[in-house]
Amino acid sequence: MKLIDILTHMNPVLRILLVIVLAVAAIFAVKTIRRFSQYLLTMKVDSKETSQEILTRRYPKLATIITILVSAVTFTIYFVTVGMILREFKISLTTYFASATVIG
């Protein structure tokens, strides 16, 4: 059986619990991504350097790109998670996508 078939034949309560577990996993994924990006932004570039110059001051464009990528990944994770929750409650995803495009 395919994964889609398994999920469609699953009890609705179990599907909602699965979505909640995925939402919690999404929160942990976002926290991990943010911690990793903070590590990238605050690590020393050269170990022989005596000053506490961090990557943000030395390469501001790279710091901006990392911050934008982390924000985009965070938005995507939360957007998909909320969409899955709405789908389980039989709410139309067309309206959800339309509002996201207008707001975004």
The rounded distance between the terminal residues' Cα atoms is: 38 Å
Q: How many separate domains make up the residues?
A: 1
> What percent of residues adopt helix (DSSP H or I)?
over 70%
Query: The biggest beta sheet, please?
Result: none
Q: How many DSSP E strands?
A: 0
Q: Given the structure, what is the number of helices?
A: 5
Key features of this structure:
104 residues, mainly alpha
Description:
With 104 residues, the protein is mainly α. It has one domain (3-103). The chain has helices at 3-8, 12-42, 55-58, 60-88, 93-103. Helix 2 (12-42) packs antiparallel against helix 4 (60-88). The longest helix has 31 residues, at 12-42. It starts with a helix and ends with a helix. The model has no long low-confidence stretch (mean pLDDT 76).
Summarize, please.
The protein has 104 residues and is mainly alpha-helical.
Give me the secondary-structure topology.
Blueprint: H1 3-8, H2 12-42, H3 55-58, H4 60-88, H5 93-103
